[in-house]
Design goal:
By secondary structure, the protein is mostly beta strands. It has nine helices and 57 strands. It has a seven-stranded antiparallel β-sheet with strand order 18-19-20-21-22-23-24, with no helix packed on it. Strand 50 and strand 51 form a beta hairpin. The longest helix is centred in the N-terminal third of the chain and has 20 residues. The chain is globular and about 95 Å long.
Length: about 850
């Protein structure tokens, strides 16, 4: 066929046949769609074919099948398009529900493709799984705009002509039953929001494996689309983020006005929830925005003047799942790189952002984004992390930072003028700092003698506590310091906001939230703003007055963390998505079985025989007190066995799990059966518990706890709830009972120490490598598994405690890592070392600025 050499047939459809062919001019393989002879004689069908070609040719987007050429052969017209290798979304769905993470990736590609088409006035009108193609490398391609409608620039929706045929006017029904919008069912002209409804039906089916609207007959199906709601995702057995369920529900609203305002808003909401940070704007097809880049490459973005606007309309970023014809808040996107956003601060003029982050899976560093040059460029601080910017544009930074937990890093506090690359070191062991309004003195969070402290100015201690502290900010008048106070002996970020005055007087000005991340004072000093979640990591921006009056400033579909507020009231926030993966790996294998099915799984603990695991869920679905699940490794679903905390250890017989909820209230330990059995609760008035481990006998319990007001230590109790017996006044960074039950193994500053439970005598066994931590006991006497995490891998070693022998047992390269730093939460290994379960998370985010938050 002219320059095209037919290789083989691919398939046939209502309009003709599709062939694999070779373009002899360019030496590439293509797909050729040829109209059948019968269809070629139908002038209306021919016009439809030509208009389909014009439609596809007008669209140039990575998520839309590209058209290369059009021609005619022996009276039959044909299209030449890119050759796609892979399978349709229908073929994937026929294999069962698509995992949530993968479904969100596909959904984002579909939404971005639709956004590009809609930006050129092209409506698909027949979006369904058969018209979505997944290439072998996982890219999404939307196929067949044959039913698309071209909205002319000088016409509204009501008067637009169609590309299907001149006779396709109101009263005719096009599209595929089951994916049509209510307006299509009624025979009305369908706009862009009709595609959004179809998108919702496709996404619903991807997640559940079931059609949102499917009855016995076509008429009944169409009636269901008009009048019925599909079952909630959670009612189908699907487990995933609630934000995704809200997105699906919003797409499937019967009234088009109550759906997303546009496909670009829809793409933005999915991207914010998934944290993919692809760097490709949903509005990339609009003339005002030009972007380049790919999902795994840092996008160097060129923006036309004044077009830094991934504008998050009320339906996209301040969306509250109710009709919102007017936006609640507007946001402009500042960053486009993929990674973890640690801390952001404006310079005094509010046009330059200085931020620290871990980009594209690299190492932490500090970057600058300017209003007139929006690409992130290194600030020249050689790995130092910014903490605060003074009114004189001096920086407080952390040099030689190391990750502690949550968004907290520790290191040496240094001072450096903006533009300089030579910090002057001030104080060691610092976790946070903020400048006073005068730009001279600093407030800091540091640790001394295992106490967390607030000093303001440096040298004057306002607070010393066992509770861990974060995110301190000095008030605009310099008279108060606000700080988050979290549970002692834990890295759980629940807690409350504490206000300190210059004399150290304390006042709690917020409720106790499950999660607290990010803080800034309003310029008036009348409120301190902070991000807090009632459950999970769905951070909303809250506000408290110094008197303790609280309100909610803003809630979105994904976590929104507040970073800074300028004197003019410009607010810097980041959208935050924490994604958790629990992977099961067999010794010696590189294959990983992803067991992620819960919203936010943490602390997986394998039973000794490796047949079952206990996994805790700390997502919003689990509530503010978390939930505990048991899951068999033979492919069974996770079964909820308890709530009120997270599991910390499984007994040696695999039958019982210890559950603890850290907090300020009197502590309790739940003993919950993994299978059959009766649960019991142990508690002690005035005694707090942050963690618990089993003794080998399954009758005694090692507690990490403390009487209220005292330092966290190690205690022993039993299943009868005996008053905890003090074993060690101050708990080390890690401790466990050694096999035999007669000694403790302690990690004291990187040195493993054996301590007798009977008489307290101690013996040093060996020194760990920097960054190495103990994990689990091996079946051989005095052999221990340890882990060491680098930015890209987890190394598991088997260590002989009585010699210098060390064996590298397994090196694990996470497959689901999405470009942020690798944060391993928990590793569990069976005693024989055959099975390893590794729990890790991605912190992904992007910066936005808003001038409308009030």
């Amino acid at each position: 066929m002219g320059p095209y050499e037919i290789v083989s047939a691919i398939g046939a459809g209502g309009m003709g046949e599709v062939y694999r062919a070779k373009d002899t001019r360019l030496g590439r393989e293509v797909a050729i769609k040829v109209l059948s002879a019968a269809v070629a004689k139908d002038q209306d069908r021919l016009r439809r074919f030509e208009q389909e070609a014009q439609t596809i040719a007008a669209l140039n987007h990575p998520n839309i099948m590209g058209l290369h050429d059009i021609g005619s052969y022996e009276g039959s017209p044909f299209l030449v398009s890119e050759l796609l290798e892979g399978e349709t979304l229908r073929q994937k769905i026929d294999q069962g529900p698509i995992p949530t993470r993968k479904a969100m990736e596909y959904a984002l590609g579909m939404a971005q493709g639709l956004a590009a088409a809609h930006a050129r006035g092209v409506i698909h009108r027949d979006l369904k799984p058969e018209n979505v193609f997944i290439t072998r490398d996982g890219r999404v391609k939307i196929l067949d705009f044959g039913l698309a409608k071209l909205v002319l620039e000088d016409h509204g929706i009501e008067s637009a002509v169609t590309l299907t045929s001149p006779t396709t006017m109101p009263g005719m029904v096009l599209g595929t039953v089951g994916y049509m919008s209510p307006e299509q069912v009624r025979g009305e002209l369908a706009g862009a929001r009709s595609d959004i409804f179809s998108f919702g039906a496709v996404l619903y089916e991807m997640l559940t494996g079931k059609r949102a609207f499917k009855k016995d007959t076509v008429a009944e199906t169409m009636t269901a689309i008009l009048r019925e709601e599909p079952p909630e995702l959670s009612e189908t057995g699907w487990q995933g983020p609630l934000g995704l369920q809200r997105i699906v529900s919003r797409c499937l609203e019967k009234n088009p006005e109550q759906r997303f305002q546009s496909a670009s808003d829809l793409a933005f909401a999915i991207e914010a929830l998934s944290g993919t940070g692809t760097g490709v704007s949903p509005t990339a097809a609009l003339p005002a925005v030009k972007e380049s880049g790919a999902a795994n490459v840092r996008p160097w973005t060129l923006l036309a003047a004044g077009a830094l606007t991934c504008a998050a309309l009320g339906a996209a970023i301040s969306w509250r799942l109710r009709p919102a014809p007017k936006p609640v808040a507007s946001f402009d996107r500042l960053s486009f790189e993929r990674g973890t956003m640690i801390r952001g601060r404006f310079l005094s003029e509010g046009k330059t952002l200085l931020y620290s982050g871990v980009l594209s899976g690299g190492v932490p560093d500090t970057y600058v984004i300017r209003e007139d040059y929006p690409t992130s460029v290194p600030a020249g601080l050689h790995g130092a992390l910014v903490l605060a910017v003074s009114s004189r544009e001096h920086l407080a930074v952390l040099v030689r930072p190391h990750f502690w937990g949550q968004y907290v890093w520790a290191g040496t506090l240094a001072r450096v003028p903006m533009g300089s690359t030579e910090p002057r070191e001030l104080l060691d062991n610092v976790y946070d700092a903020d400048w006073a309004p005068n730009g001279d003195s600093l407030a800091v969070i540091d640790r001394k003698d295992d106490k967390w402290q607030v000093e303001y100015p440096i040298g004057k201690v306002l607070l010393a506590t066992d509770s861990w502290l974060s995110d301190l900010r000095v008030s605009p008048d310099g008279k108060h310091v606000a700080v988050f106070r979290h549970p002692a002996g834990s890295k759980d970020d629940r807690g409350n906001v504490l206000l300190l005055d210059s004399d150290g007087k304390q006042k709690v000005i917020s409720a106790e939230w499950e999660a607290l991340e990010g803080m800034a004072w309003q310029p008036s000093g009348k409120e301190v703003w902070y991000s807090a979640a009632a459950a999970g990591d769905q951070y909303c921006i809250r506000a408290s007055t110094p008197e303790g009056k609280e309100r909610t400033v803003y809630c979105g579909t994904s976590g929104t963390r507040v970073h800074d507020i300028t004197a003019a009231g410009k607010t810097l926030v980041s959208t935050e998505v924490q994604r958790f993966t629990t992977a099961l790996v067999q010794h010696g294998s590189i294959d990983e079985r992803d067991l992620t099915g819960l919203g936010a799984p943490i602390n997986p603990r394998l039973t000794p025989d490796g047949t079952e695991a206990v996994i805790s869920d700390v997502s919003e679905r689990a509530g503010s007190d978390y939930s505990v699940y048991a899951q068999k490794m033979d492919g069974g679903a996770a079964v909820k066995i308890g709530s009120g905390g997270y599991g910390t250890d499984v007994s040696d017989d695999g039958k019982w799990v210890l559950v603890v909820l850290p907090g300020e209230t009197p502590g309790k330990v739940q003993v919950i059966p993994v299978g059959a059995g009766e649960a019991k609760t142990l508690s002690w008035e005035g005694f707090q518990v942050s963690a618990a481990n089993w003794f080998p006998d399954g009758q005694h319990i090692l507690l990490f706890g403390n009487p209220v007001g005292q330092v966290v230590g190690l205690y022993e109790t039993d299943l009868n709830g005996t008053t905890p017996k003090l074993l060690l006044k101050q708990a080390p960074g890690w401790a466990d009972v050694m096999p035999g039950g007669e000694n403790l193994l302690l990690d004291v500053g990187g040195t493993l120490v054996q301590r007798s439970i009977q008489d307290g005598s101690e013996k040093e066994l060996r020194t760990l490598e920097p960054g190495e931590v103990p994990v689990d006991w091996a079946k051989e006497p005095k052999h221990l598994y340890t882990q060491k995490v680098s930015p890209t891998e987890v190394r598991i070693d088997k260590v002989d405690l009585e010699s210098d022998k060390r064996e590298t047992w397994q090196v694990f390269h996470p497959k689901n890592q999405q470009g942020s730093m690798l944060n391993v939460l928990q590793v569990s290994i069976t005693p024989d070392g055959r099975w390893m379960m590794i729990n890790y998370e991605d912190h992904l985010g992007q910066f936005y600025v808003s001038e409308t938050l009030r």
